[in-house]
Amino acid sequence: MATYVLVHGAWHTGELLADVAAPIRAAGHDVHTPTIAGNAPGDDRRAGLEAAISSIADYLNENGLTDVILVGHSYGGMVITGVADRAGDRVRRLVYWNAFVPNNGECLNDMVPAHYVELFDAISGQSPDNAVMLPPPIWREAFMNDADAALADSAFAKLNPHPYATFTDKIALSKNPAEMDVAKSYINFTEDTALPQSLGWHPRLSEKLGLFRLVQAPGGHEVCFTNPGLLAEKIMEAGRD
Amino acid sequence: MATYVLVHGAWHTGELLADVAAPIRAAGHDVHTPTIAGNAPGDDRRAGLEAAISSIADYLNENGLTDVILVGHSYGGMVITGVADRAGDRVRRLVYWNAFVPNNGECLNDMVPAHYVELFDAISGQSPDNAVMLPPPIWREAFMNDADAALADSAFAKLNPHPYATFTDKIALSKNPAEMDVAKSYINFTEDTALPQSLGWHPRLSEKLGLFRLVQAPGGHEVCFTNPGLLAEKIMEAGRD
Amino acid sequence: MATYVLVHGAWHTGELLADVAAPIRAAGHDVHTPTIAGNAPGDDRRAGLEAAISSIADYLNENGLTDVILVGHSYGGMVITGVADRAGDRVRRLVYWNAFVPNNGECLNDMVPAHYVELFDAISGQSPDNAVMLPPPIWREAFMNDADAALADSAFAKLNPHPYATFTDKIALSKNPAEMDVAKSYINFTEDTALPQSLGWHPRLSEKLGLFRLVQAPGGHEVCFTNPGLLAEKIMEAGRD
Asked: Gene3D superfamilies recorded for this chain (chains A, B, C) (predicted)?
């Protein structure tokens, strides 16, 4: 039995990973799906990356979790990288699932094409609390390309405004991921176009990990909604020793 | 029920898409498979791109088709782009299936590696009516790589000489595809080597669409012959709202 | 009935391809799995590339094999290229399976990232007979990413120290593969990270073949261990006329 901690992406909460956690739990593992500070219903959307990372590091400490397989989705890659840097003794393996891989001093927006940064800047600029949302057509076409319209709509309704500072705050790391002394895996869903594939997740970001285990499967950025069972399987293939 | 118009590629006719149309029709949709001017048995092989585009635009008008999901294969991508530019009010979504995506002023040959242009120039130069054919070894290895020899041969026997001017005529568009106000999808079969994959369909040509929905599946350039059922499925995933 | 000769990769022997040969044999074909000079138990690890190539060319001659579908895995790509150059009249088709494709004057290390060359230099430098082994973490994460730990370990135990001169000897060819007058296929397993995918097998090395047939399937570098049945299928799709 292993301990999995699944860290969601931007606009999501831990709750939205329930269908992914269930089959991993059914396979005999302990599974946690905390919500990152800034994404829970009542949270202040002015939260930054430091608070986000601390909230998950604190979660591991408070629950006394060790030998953790720490899985991060998309923006969650920023968070698990920061957690590994400050609570590395609790982490057995990092698993990036179509996730950002930052080196010291990088922010999420540094890994995103310019037209997305402009769009996010404009949207958050209109927001009273520096929050950002995804325009529905981008969600439907580029994130939920493997869903039908009904699922794209129902999943969109579950998203929450995201604290934009977590995209613009530069991460502070004592070591870059490639130098971290922890096992690493990268799960790449091959139809994920949340980043344009010419500037995509894998191998562009995955190879920042140094030696890592690649796991791939068909699906878009939001397989937590479109194929949670397959995602659970791939997380276990990525997470096993 | 939606209306699908499937526009074939070079050397093909609409008739060769019958096995693709059937399962889409069986799912309740209206499906049309017109043959582009220049490709029907008696057509003059000196036809150019303008005539090709007009023939499909005329087809939509004459049949009073609206809200069309307009699907183009390979060279058919040139044609549907032109049709969307001049009859955009009839088109609900453009679906490119391993297809060329031209910007204003580009011709098909601008998107093809130099050694193919040289080969096509040489073959059409030998032809009395500026027609071009594919050499059988290229068809067998690079287009029908997922077929056995018998299917590669029987499908080759159904091809017709292609009007080469449609490869060299530059398209005239009032707007590039990325700026067109119509939904767009790109279907990429992942073993398609009709274009070398280092200079391939996706993401090189797909990303000229701006925001688009990616659909991928295993197969070569000619899944209309090697896996028409899977292709029909993917067309419906690409075409749905 | 066709004749298949399967040429293993570095650290392997022909014996390790038994589970791949069996289903090809069951489909009615004649299958040979010779061990390259330098890799058999008692062989001198100071063997070079010339001896390696000669050993397989001699095998074809001594067994009177003609119309051979000659399959090479990884390092085996160096060997089959050399065999085709000097015994091309015995070869019907070359099949590269995640294999190196050398032009005249290239060595295997010319196609490998610098950090692997440094690692191999260091390991072979420690060896009394210029042999090189793979460090277990690289084997487990980058070669056996699609295996569980038990299979990764049991397969590792079957490997043998590899004659490093075969990685540093430049191949002498009268013709580069693209110019060779023999049919060619490339099988690419899409999760193979033995080479980093940004500097990977396909299309970087496959396209050195000129016109070739692409066959792809899911799996890592060592599908001979993780999925021999699927590999056998793909070898037959790559090898048929």
From this structure: alpha/beta hydrolase
